[in-house]
Amino acid sequence: MSTDEFDLTVPELTADDLLVLEDPRFGPESVAVVTGAASGIGRATAVALAANGLTVVGGDVDEKGLDETAALAADVGADGEVVPVPTDLTDDADVESMVEAAAAEGELRYVANIAGIQHIASIPDFPVETYDLLLDVMLRAPFLVAKHAMAHIRETSDSAEQSSAGGRKSSTSGDGVGAIANMSSVHGHYATTDKVAYITAKHGLNGLTRSIAAEGEGSLRGFSVSVGYVLTPLMVDQIEDTARERGITEREVVEDVMLGQARTKEMMTPAEVANLFVFGFSSHASHLNGGDLLFDGGFTTTYE
């Protein structure tokens, strides 16, 4: 490979990539909602949580992608399953139905708000309708998912004698323990040009995370995950487009434009991000409440 070539192959997710933890609440009776589950980080997170034995309700507008995620969970030998629930996050009724479908599967304890989109333009040129769409998907929808899910997570404290759907019953019922996690970003910590909607949404998610923690009474936690650039199919397209537009190599796009500030000169994989959600949901992270898991290779904390 020459110095100008760059390997943009998205790694295939395997069982060896996934963090699997022993946790008393990681079993099929415990349910997690994952939005954006049809691809990228959302897909990896849904599969990782299923690998930890959870029942995962995957929400996305991409029905075919959801089915592929469910198949991938089976392919890696996950003890849990991914249940596809096609969901338009801009439709309030769809969002509520997704949460209710999750609650019908067992004890809803965990939520991973991951779905996101991107648009690049300066503030004067940024289309208002696109701004509204990004905020609807990445900030309003996470609030709405939390609004509906929090009641179900709290209800586990009253369900010690109740069996969940399909006759499953949790040995840990009665504790009301759960967590809602939001996919933030290095752009939730600072701002760059031409990403106003994305940056606004990620900063807002940090506030939502802290609000969940403030109202969670200790047992229902809120946390966020912030990373830099992740090697997903969408990111590959962005790299290739940027290289053409700027007349530079793909390596220069990644190492100079994207990772210029970072000390770790490689992008994360979706599985590496998914493992942060697994850890954050586990009992090992019981003191992670209102905080942020910042894994960015030094992007936001170092400079030259």
How would you describe the overall organization of this protein?
The chain is α/β, with parallel strands linked by helices and 304 residues long. The chain has one domain: 3-Layer(aba) Sandwich (Rossmann fold), CATH 3.40.50.720. Helix content is 40%, strand content 14%. It is built from 8 helices and 7 strands. It has helices at 40-51, 63-75, 92-105, 128-155, 196-215, 233-246, 250-258, 270-281; strands spanning 30-35, 55-60, 82-86, 107-113, 178-183, 220-227, 292-295. It is globular, with a radius of gyration of 19 Å. The two termini are 29 Å apart. 45% of the residues are buried. Mean pLDDT is 89; it is low at 158-172.
What tags apply to this protein structure?
single chain, 304 residues, alpha/beta, Rossmann fold, 8 helices, globular
How is the topology of this model organized?
Blueprint: E1 30-35, H1 40-51, E2 55-60, H2 63-75, E3 82-86, H3 92-105, E4 107-113, H4 128-155, E5 178-183, H5 196-215, E6 220-227, H6 233-246, H7 250-258, H8 270-281, E7 292-295
Parallel strand pairs: 1-2, 1-4, 2-3, 4-5, 5-6, 6-7
Helix pairs in contact: 1-2, 1-8, 3-4, 4-5, 6-7
